[in-house]
Design brief:
By secondary structure, the protein is α/β, with parallel strands linked by helices. Helices cover about 35% and strands about 15% of the residues. The mean pLDDT is about 90.
Length: about 500
């Protein structure tokens, strides 16, 4: 009878858990039994592993093989355990030393010919191994670059099972991760392309500086989509913590670009208006995958033609917008994904969406109200900045003078404003004004004097603003003050914040 144990990692959402892959080989009718709550992909591993071992020139043991994945109460998903199972079987049969890869975490999917294929979620798996105190990992060659970004971990890569067997037996060196590519200059749409729309540009800058959600209303061609697509270009680069979170989510979804490395630019997600609730907030059979709101974590989620989305999909966003997390429950358990994103909504004023607006609009008033009414009050109440854009004039579109401000220029002001907010709220643990709870803003030392908030209090008393809206105007006012270099908002900042919140005066 032979026994061997190899370490691997399982995922539940973005949280990785160390898994011990045990192999017990005993006399009896040849069979392979897998226990430890495996899913279908893991049940099928018995056939993949057997073919991979034989086609790699190794002997398959004709014994009763019991494979157990500990902890047995944790559901196991996917094919990332294939390589660990193969090594455990070979070690248990005596083909490899019993202490093969002792204290080394092994990840990888096996092809029938013994090739080791990349797997999703390698980065959070390696991060989990590091948290558990294991600093040596073996990963597929296609995942080596992303695994290498975890500090303090010695990463080695394999392209075939034969290479790993040769390493254990003879010390043949494994592959080393490639050097990360040099960081290039940011690419993508630039604000210089946007003609006119000073209010829209100001709203975009305020939203970026304070982390506020944004709604852009107006006729086709007013520049709503152009502005939304340029929001990531004025957001600061992600710090190490945020970059790890974002890269881990994209690793789980299998969306990392070739070459691996940390994602430093804020992500931008723009799902089609036919997207389902699972596509937006996460879901799927078996292990729930992250949706668009999680893939936009620390970045921008843009819903163009927002009234065309299903009511259920829009309302499903309300809880993630408040909590910054998505919890998806399935029969085999629940997973949680981060979802701290900036929501940008764009909408035409009516279904016909005539470019000339009210003059040639064919929609009756009740149809216009019903169309925009698809964006529920509770959802819009969570959107801090709401502005209506006017059509672009010919003089603005054909302007040949000095170019408009570039994204780099605006990004400099946004970064300075974010630093000011982060220094102010450091003791509370918040980084942007949009995250600060209302009670903090209404109590000393951040309470604003009555002469500054007079108009704001009047609107709260007559029902023009809800209590949530009151707090959101305060947050916008603090952002306006940060952008203009003031340490506290004044009456003019409150007035501009009310305009950006309610759309009045536009």
């Amino acid at each position: 009878m032979g026994y061997a144990k190899i370490l691997s990692v399982g995922l539940a959402g973005v949280a990785g858990h160390l898994v011990e892959v045990e192999a017990d080989l005993a006399p009896g009718l040849p069979a392979v039994i897998i226990s430890g709550l495996p899913d279908t992909a893991l049940h099928e591993a018995r056939d993949r592993v057997r073919a991979a071992i034989v086609n790699s020139g190794q002997k398959w043991p004709n014994r009763r093989i019991t494979l157990n994945l500990l902890p047995a109460t944790l559901p196991k998903y996917g094919s990332a355990f294939d390589l660990a199972i193969a090594v455990a079987v070979l070690a248990g049969s005596g083909e490899l030393p019993p202490v093969a890869l002792d204290a080394t975490v092994v990840l990888g999917e096996l092809g029938l010919d013994g090739t080791v294929r990349p797997v999703r979620g390698t980065l959070p798996m390696v991060a989990a191994a590091a948290r558990a105190g294991h600093t040596r990992v073996v990963v597929p060659a296609g995942n080596a670059a992303e695994a290498a970004v975890i500090p303090g971990v010695r990463v080695r890569a394999v392209d075939t099972l034969h290479r790993l067997v040769a390493h254990v037996r003879d010390g043949t060196p494994l592959l080393t991760p490639p050097e990360p590519p040099p960081a290039g200059a940011p690419t993508g749409p630039d604000l210089t392309d946007v003609a006119g729309q000073p209010l829209g540009r100001r709203a975009l800058e305020v939203a970026a500086a304070g982390g506020h959600h944004l709604a852009l209303l107006g006729p086709p061609g007013a520049g709503k989509t152009m502005l939304a697509e340029r929001l990531p270009s004025i957001l600061p680069e992600l710090d190490d913590e945020a970059a790890l979170e974002v890269t881990a989510l994209h690793s789980i979804a299998g969306l990392l670009p070739p070459g691996g490395g940390l994602l430093r630019r804020p992500p931008f997600q723009a799902p089609h208006h036919t997207a389902t609730v699972p596509a937006l907030v996460g879901g799927g059979s078996g292990l729930a995958r992250p949706g668009a709101v999680s893939l936009a974590h620390r970045g921008v989620l843009f819903l163009d033609e927002a009234p065309e989305y299903s009511k259920g999909a829009l309302e499903a966003l309300r809880q993630p917008l408040e909590s910054g997390r998505v919890r998806v429950a399935r029969t085999r358990g629940a997973v949680e994904y981060p979802a701290r994103t900036q929501l940008v909504l764009a909408a035409n004023p009516c279904p016909c969406a005539k470019p000339s607006g009210d003059v040639d609009c064919e929609c009756p008033p009740q149809v216009r109200r019903r169309y925009l009414g698809r964006l529920s009050g509770p959802l819009l109440d969570r959107v801090d900045v709401q502005v209506s854009l006017m059509p672009v004039r010919a003089a603005e579109l054909l302007q040949t003078g000095a170019p408009h401000e570039s994204s780099a220029t605006v990004a400099g002001r946004v970064l300075a404003a974010r630093h000011a907010a982060a220094d102010r709220w450091r003791s509370t643990g918040h980084r942007v004004n949009a995250d600060v709870p209302g009670p903090h803003l209404r109590r000393p030392p951040w309470h604003l004097p009555g002469r500054v908030t007079r108009e704001l209090r009047r609107r709260l008393d007559n029902g023009a603003l809800s209590a949530r809206g009151y707090d959101r105007v305060l947050r916008i006012a603090w952002t306006v003050a940060d952008l203009d270099g003031r340490d506290r908002p004044d009456g003019d900042d409150i007035g501009e914040a009310i305009q950006l919140r309610t759309g009045e005066g536009t």
